[in-house]
Structures
1.
Amino acid sequence: MPREDLILRCTECKEENYITTKNKKAHPEKMEIKKFCKRCNKMTVHKEKK
């Protein structure tokens, strides 16, 4: 199965906030998305945790 779970981490406070999936064959690069961080209390960039 090509879909794998991954954890999204806030780039400002390093809090691990979101769990999602992605197709690693179609998108091998790391995911980067703007999401709301509860700890920072604002919209921040979240990157895929290695």
2.
Amino acid sequence: MTPQEFVDWYGDGSDGSCPTEQQWQRILALPADAPVTLVNFFKLNESAQYPEGFSGMDVNVAGQEAFDRYASVSIPTLDKVGGRFLHVGPFAGQFIGEEEDWDIIAVGAYPNRDALVALYSDEGYRDVFVHRSAACARQKVLMAAG
């Protein structure tokens, strides 16, 4: 896979909903055998914000419901590619550092870079990613590798 193929599938990342081309390059440049951990921070929309013209199911739902639609596929797909969640739960506040406001924290562990790439390459995962984007007012994902 190339960074451009991921951008074609997910978007250019300019709205913060997915990795940018530069971030995809960084991911794909990781050592193939290095474990990867992602720490996801999610702030949910009160009401899901689906893109204009999205159809196939009710779009007049809460951000949490849209996020649940995403999670119903992303969690088993993560397992399928060899990853696992170390923790998923509500944000409880800052311990050290500048205060931030989030709703959900999810820590995912991947045995290697290829498992992470396999998740984002999975057709079913790509299809439900729209629910993640609709659910989130903002998100931040930190990456550790090695």
3.
Amino acid sequence: MLGVIAGDIIGSTYEFTEQKRYDFELLPQDSRFTDDTVMTLAVAWWLVDSGNRPPTKERLVECMQTLGRRYPYAGYGSIFNFWLHCDDPQPYNSWGNGSAMRVSPVGLYADSLKDALELAEITASVSHNHPEGIKGAQAVAAAIWMAKNNLSKDEIRQYIETLFGYDLSRTVEKIRPTYQWEVSCQQSVPESIICFLDGRDFEDVVRLAVSLGGDADTMACIAGSIAACVYPIPEHITVECEKRLTPDLLKIMRDFEQFINDRSSLCV
């Protein structure tokens, strides 16, 4: 879970700067969590709250609205912000990467790849029910599930390309010069996954994601969520990012981590 939050916080100050440098300041004083963290933790809360019961869309919406309204200035898009405050929120056919940014708890929670894909569709479809919005969430959840279960980068690349049609044959170095700020799943999810595939360690993956000059917090959030399943997060990043969380968000994160550990112990 911290991989998502660290990526979000590290990318937060570079979201609209078209940052193309790799050697940027990692955690400036004004770096903070954004809507990526809040909605990811809402999904985590939903899964913990469901316990051993099948998670429902209705409860997911409750968790997202409750936590989202608690943090009204986290940086939501205008349409999603309306959704958060609506009495009867309905999906609005979005293909934006908001579906992919919040899905990571599903990849960590799911018992099988099939479960990960099904739960990812649920988390996307309550708002981002466009096929590309669902596909983006599923691709990220699948990559996390596969990385968590020790499948190789080549296996992850082949599966994502085959099932979702994303071109993962490119490299960050070839993408960076012409890449522009983009919020669609179609043009930010594949690039975020490529950052994980190209990266050598956790910090390298996140730096690559930010250095593309796009939707930095969300792309680093997605890339970091996969990378954290493979690489340890450096202690200084852990300490600085946890310091930037509020007590209730930190509690949701730790409750989810304990929940996942308990589930893993039962499966042994």
